[in-house]
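[job 0412] stage=complex_fold ligand=uracil status=START
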Amino acid sequence: MEELFKERLDTVFTRRGITTHRRIRRLLQKHNVSINGNRILESGFRINLESDKIFIDGKQKILAPDIFLMMNKCRGTICSTKDSGLYRTVYSLIPESYFEYARKNSLQKIHTVGRLDTDTEGLLIFTTNGDFSHSLAAPNFHVKKTYFVQLEIPETKERQQEFIKNFSAGILVPPEKNEKEFFSKPSVIKWNSPDSCFLTITEGKFHQIKRMFAAMGNKVAFLKRTAIGELQLDKTLLPGQLREISQNELPLLFKSEGTTPKKNSELQFPGE
Ligand code: URA
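[job 0412] stage=complex_fold status=DONE, emitting C-alpha coordinates
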Protein backbone atom coordinates (compact mmCIF):
# COMPACT_ATOMS: atom_id res chain seq x y z
CA MET A 1 0.00 0.00 0.00
CA GLU A 2 2.86 2.36 0.90
CA GLU A 3 4.07 1.88 -2.66
CA LEU A 4 0.99 3.66 -4.02
CA PHE A 5 1.86 6.93 -2.38
CA LYS A 6 5.32 6.92 -3.82
CA GLU A 7 6.46 8.79 -6.88
CA ARG A 8 9.54 8.45 -9.08
CA LEU A 9 12.47 10.51 -7.94
CA ASP A 10 13.04 11.95 -11.45
CA THR A 11 9.35 13.00 -11.68
CA VAL A 12 9.48 14.73 -8.30
CA PHE A 13 12.84 16.40 -8.92
CA THR A 14 11.91 17.78 -12.33
CA ARG A 15 8.43 18.89 -11.29
CA ARG A 16 9.83 20.66 -8.23
CA GLY A 17 12.52 22.37 -10.29
CA ILE A 18 15.50 20.64 -8.62
CA THR A 19 16.81 19.46 -11.98
CA THR A 20 15.66 18.57 -15.51
CA HIS A 21 14.96 15.13 -16.99
CA ARG A 22 18.14 15.43 -19.08
CA ARG A 23 20.32 16.26 -16.08
CA ILE A 24 18.93 13.88 -13.47
CA ARG A 25 21.48 11.11 -14.16
CA ARG A 26 24.37 13.54 -13.85
CA LEU A 27 22.95 14.91 -10.60
CA LEU A 28 22.76 11.40 -9.16
CA GLN A 29 26.29 10.51 -10.25
CA LYS A 30 28.04 13.75 -9.31
CA HIS A 31 26.15 14.56 -6.11
CA ASN A 32 25.27 12.59 -3.05
CA VAL A 33 21.49 12.20 -3.24
CA SER A 34 20.31 10.12 -0.31
CA ILE A 35 16.91 8.91 0.83
CA ASN A 36 16.69 7.94 4.48
CA GLY A 37 20.46 7.71 4.62
CA ASN A 38 20.97 5.52 1.53
CA ARG A 39 22.69 6.93 -1.55
CA ILE A 40 20.44 6.72 -4.62
CA LEU A 41 21.79 6.31 -8.17
CA GLU A 42 18.62 5.15 -9.89
CA SER A 43 16.42 7.93 -11.33
CA GLY A 44 13.33 5.69 -11.16
CA PHE A 45 13.68 5.15 -7.41
CA ARG A 46 10.30 5.70 -5.75
CA ILE A 47 9.95 8.09 -2.85
CA ASN A 48 7.22 9.06 -0.42
CA LEU A 49 7.27 12.79 0.18
CA GLU A 50 5.38 12.44 3.45
CA SER A 51 7.78 10.09 5.16
CA ASP A 52 11.12 9.90 3.29
CA LYS A 53 14.04 12.12 4.22
CA ILE A 54 15.78 13.51 1.14
CA PHE A 55 19.31 14.92 1.34
CA ILE A 56 21.43 16.40 -1.47
CA ASP A 57 25.10 16.72 -0.55
CA GLY A 58 24.20 16.58 3.12
CA LYS A 59 21.53 19.30 2.92
CA GLN A 60 17.94 18.26 3.59
CA LYS A 61 15.39 19.06 0.85
CA ILE A 62 11.98 19.64 2.35
CA LEU A 63 9.38 19.20 -0.37
CA ALA A 64 5.78 20.18 0.28
CA PRO A 65 3.38 17.22 0.53
CA ASP A 66 0.66 16.67 -2.05
CA ILE A 67 -2.94 17.76 -1.56
CA PHE A 68 -5.67 15.15 -0.90
CA LEU A 69 -9.22 16.43 -0.44
CA MET A 70 -12.66 14.88 -0.13
CA MET A 71 -15.71 16.86 -1.23
CA ASN A 72 -19.37 16.18 -0.78
CA LYS A 73 -20.24 17.12 -4.36
CA CYS A 74 -23.59 18.85 -4.67
CA ARG A 75 -26.04 18.42 -7.51
CA GLY A 76 -25.77 20.89 -10.36
CA THR A 77 -21.96 21.01 -10.41
CA ILE A 78 -19.70 19.66 -13.16
CA CYS A 79 -16.37 17.88 -12.80
CA SER A 80 -14.65 19.60 -15.73
CA THR A 81 -12.35 22.56 -15.17
CA LYS A 82 -14.33 24.89 -17.42
CA ASP A 83 -17.61 26.43 -16.41
CA SER A 84 -20.35 25.31 -18.80
CA GLY A 85 -22.21 28.60 -18.42
CA LEU A 86 -25.12 26.62 -17.02
CA TYR A 87 -23.37 24.81 -14.17
CA ARG A 88 -20.55 25.71 -11.76
CA THR A 89 -17.48 23.54 -11.77
CA VAL A 90 -16.56 21.61 -8.61
CA TYR A 91 -13.21 23.47 -8.69
CA SER A 92 -15.01 26.73 -7.92
CA LEU A 93 -15.84 25.24 -4.48
CA ILE A 94 -12.17 24.71 -3.56
CA PRO A 95 -10.65 27.55 -1.52
CA GLU A 96 -8.06 29.56 -3.50
CA SER A 97 -5.41 28.82 -0.83
CA TYR A 98 -5.13 25.20 -2.11
CA PHE A 99 -4.45 26.35 -5.68
CA GLU A 100 -1.91 28.82 -4.38
CA TYR A 101 -0.18 26.12 -2.29
CA ALA A 102 0.02 23.87 -5.37
CA ARG A 103 1.43 26.70 -7.51
CA LYS A 104 3.89 27.90 -4.90
CA ASN A 105 5.28 24.41 -4.32
CA SER A 106 5.33 23.41 -8.02
CA LEU A 107 2.87 20.58 -7.44
CA GLN A 108 0.81 19.11 -10.25
CA LYS A 109 -2.57 20.73 -10.90
CA ILE A 110 -5.37 19.88 -8.47
CA HIS A 111 -7.58 17.35 -10.28
CA THR A 112 -10.47 15.01 -9.49
CA VAL A 113 -10.05 11.25 -9.24
CA GLY A 114 -12.70 10.12 -11.71
CA ARG A 115 -15.88 12.07 -12.27
CA LEU A 116 -19.47 12.21 -11.12
CA ASP A 117 -22.40 13.28 -13.31
CA THR A 118 -23.86 16.77 -12.95
CA ASP A 119 -26.87 15.43 -11.05
CA THR A 120 -24.86 13.00 -8.86
CA GLU A 121 -23.91 13.94 -5.29
CA GLY A 122 -21.38 12.61 -2.83
CA LEU A 123 -17.79 11.61 -2.37
CA LEU A 124 -15.37 13.20 -4.82
CA ILE A 125 -11.60 13.08 -4.32
CA PHE A 126 -9.14 15.77 -5.41
CA THR A 127 -5.37 15.48 -5.42
CA THR A 128 -2.18 16.93 -6.89
CA ASN A 129 -0.58 13.46 -7.06
CA GLY A 130 -0.99 12.04 -10.57
CA ASP A 131 0.38 8.58 -9.67
CA PHE A 132 -2.15 8.32 -6.87
CA SER A 133 -5.16 9.32 -8.98
CA HIS A 134 -4.02 7.04 -11.77
CA SER A 135 -3.84 4.05 -9.40
CA LEU A 136 -7.18 4.80 -7.78
CA ALA A 137 -8.92 5.01 -11.13
CA ALA A 138 -7.02 2.16 -12.85
CA PRO A 139 -9.32 -0.80 -13.69
CA ASN A 140 -6.73 -3.36 -12.52
CA PHE A 141 -6.86 -2.01 -8.96
CA HIS A 142 -10.59 -2.89 -8.76
CA VAL A 143 -11.26 -0.08 -6.30
CA LYS A 144 -14.80 -0.35 -4.94
CA LYS A 145 -17.19 2.57 -5.17
CA THR A 146 -20.44 2.48 -3.23
CA TYR A 147 -23.50 4.51 -4.22
CA PHE A 148 -26.87 5.17 -2.65
CA VAL A 149 -29.48 4.75 -5.39
CA GLN A 150 -33.05 6.02 -5.28
CA LEU A 151 -35.19 4.44 -7.98
CA GLU A 152 -38.28 5.69 -9.77
CA ILE A 153 -40.06 2.32 -9.72
CA PRO A 154 -40.42 0.21 -6.53
CA GLU A 155 -39.32 -3.41 -7.02
CA THR A 156 -41.00 -6.52 -5.59
CA LYS A 157 -39.03 -8.99 -3.40
CA GLU A 158 -38.74 -11.37 -6.37
CA ARG A 159 -37.39 -8.65 -8.63
CA GLN A 160 -34.96 -7.53 -5.91
CA GLN A 161 -33.57 -11.09 -5.86
CA GLU A 162 -33.26 -10.93 -9.64
CA PHE A 163 -31.20 -7.75 -9.38
CA ILE A 164 -28.93 -9.36 -6.75
CA LYS A 165 -28.37 -12.39 -8.99
CA ASN A 166 -27.90 -10.49 -12.24
CA PHE A 167 -25.67 -7.76 -10.85
CA SER A 168 -23.43 -10.28 -9.07
CA ALA A 169 -23.04 -12.25 -12.30
CA GLY A 170 -22.73 -9.16 -14.53
CA ILE A 171 -25.21 -7.90 -17.10
CA LEU A 172 -25.07 -6.65 -20.66
CA VAL A 173 -25.41 -2.87 -20.59
CA PRO A 174 -26.63 -1.34 -23.89
CA PRO A 175 -24.73 1.51 -25.57
CA GLU A 176 -25.46 5.14 -24.77
CA LYS A 177 -24.52 8.09 -26.97
CA ASN A 178 -21.01 7.30 -28.26
CA GLU A 179 -20.33 4.74 -25.54
CA LYS A 180 -20.28 1.09 -26.51
CA GLU A 181 -22.30 -1.65 -24.83
CA PHE A 182 -20.41 -3.52 -22.13
CA PHE A 183 -20.73 -6.47 -19.81
CA SER A 184 -20.67 -5.18 -16.23
CA LYS A 185 -18.19 -6.65 -13.74
CA PRO A 186 -19.70 -8.38 -10.68
CA SER A 187 -21.31 -5.84 -8.36
CA VAL A 188 -23.08 -6.02 -5.00
CA ILE A 189 -26.55 -4.61 -4.44
CA LYS A 190 -28.11 -4.26 -0.98
CA TRP A 191 -31.77 -3.35 -0.91
CA ASN A 192 -32.83 -0.80 1.59
CA SER A 193 -36.48 -0.44 0.62
CA PRO A 194 -38.48 -1.43 -2.52
CA ASP A 195 -37.17 1.66 -4.31
CA SER A 196 -33.75 2.32 -2.78
CA CYS A 197 -30.52 0.42 -2.44
CA PHE A 198 -26.75 0.60 -2.15
CA LEU A 199 -24.71 -0.59 -5.10
CA THR A 200 -20.98 -1.30 -5.01
CA ILE A 201 -19.16 -1.41 -8.34
CA THR A 202 -15.49 -1.62 -9.28
CA GLU A 203 -15.72 0.16 -12.61
CA GLY A 204 -16.39 3.71 -13.71
CA LYS A 205 -17.94 3.60 -17.15
CA PHE A 206 -19.95 6.53 -18.53
CA HIS A 207 -23.31 6.73 -16.67
CA GLN A 208 -22.56 3.22 -15.42
CA ILE A 209 -25.12 2.95 -12.64
CA LYS A 210 -27.91 4.72 -14.52
CA ARG A 211 -27.31 2.39 -17.46
CA MET A 212 -27.22 -0.75 -15.29
CA PHE A 213 -30.62 0.04 -13.79
CA ALA A 214 -32.01 1.08 -17.17
CA ALA A 215 -30.86 -2.29 -18.54
CA MET A 216 -32.97 -3.93 -15.83
CA GLY A 217 -36.03 -1.80 -16.69
CA ASN A 218 -35.85 0.80 -13.91
CA LYS A 219 -34.67 4.42 -13.71
CA VAL A 220 -32.33 6.15 -11.26
CA ALA A 221 -34.04 9.13 -9.65
CA PHE A 222 -31.18 10.11 -7.34
CA LEU A 223 -27.56 9.00 -7.01
CA LYS A 224 -25.02 9.67 -4.29
CA ARG A 225 -21.54 8.16 -3.87
CA THR A 226 -21.14 7.25 -0.21
CA ALA A 227 -17.75 5.48 -0.15
CA ILE A 228 -14.62 4.66 -2.12
CA GLY A 229 -12.90 1.53 -0.85
CA GLU A 230 -13.46 1.73 2.90
CA LEU A 231 -13.33 5.49 3.04
CA GLN A 232 -16.82 6.79 3.78
CA LEU A 233 -17.97 10.25 2.84
CA ASP A 234 -17.63 12.40 5.96
CA LYS A 235 -21.19 12.82 7.24
CA THR A 236 -20.45 16.25 8.65
CA LEU A 237 -19.76 17.69 5.16
CA LEU A 238 -22.73 19.58 3.77
CA PRO A 239 -23.24 19.43 -0.02
CA GLY A 240 -20.47 21.49 -1.61
CA GLN A 241 -18.17 21.34 1.43
CA LEU A 242 -14.75 19.68 1.54
CA ARG A 243 -11.99 18.71 3.93
CA GLU A 244 -8.47 17.31 3.76
CA ILE A 245 -7.97 13.53 3.78
CA SER A 246 -5.46 12.47 6.44
CA GLN A 247 -2.50 10.19 5.76
CA ASN A 248 -4.16 7.51 7.90
CA GLU A 249 -7.30 7.64 5.77
CA LEU A 250 -5.58 7.38 2.37
CA PRO A 251 -4.96 3.59 2.48
CA LEU A 252 -8.68 3.06 3.21
CA LEU A 253 -9.43 4.08 -0.38
CA PHE A 254 -7.70 0.96 -1.66
CA LYS A 255 -9.19 -1.44 0.91
CA SER A 256 -11.79 -3.84 -0.34
CA GLU A 257 -13.29 -5.54 2.73
CA GLY A 258 -16.45 -4.16 4.19
CA THR A 259 -17.06 -1.57 1.47
CA THR A 260 -20.64 -2.62 1.14
CA PRO A 261 -22.69 -1.30 4.03
CA LYS A 262 -23.14 -3.76 6.88
CA LYS A 263 -25.95 -2.32 8.95
CA ASN A 264 -28.67 0.00 7.77
CA SER A 265 -28.19 2.11 10.91
CA GLU A 266 -24.67 2.99 9.71
CA LEU A 267 -25.83 4.27 6.38
CA GLN A 268 -26.14 7.84 5.35
CA PHE A 269 -29.27 8.92 3.57
CA PRO A 270 -29.72 11.97 1.42
CA GLY A 271 -30.86 14.94 3.40
CA GLU A 272 -29.65 13.47 6.72
N1 URA B 1 -22.81 6.04 -12.35
C1 URA B 1 -23.60 6.98 -12.93
O1 URA B 1 -24.51 6.65 -13.68
N2 URA B 1 -23.34 8.28 -12.66
C2 URA B 1 -22.37 8.71 -11.82
O2 URA B 1 -22.22 9.91 -11.59
C3 URA B 1 -21.57 7.72 -11.21
C4 URA B 1 -21.81 6.40 -11.50
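Residues 116-117, 120, 207-210, 223 surround uracil (CB under 6 Å).
[job 0412] exit 0
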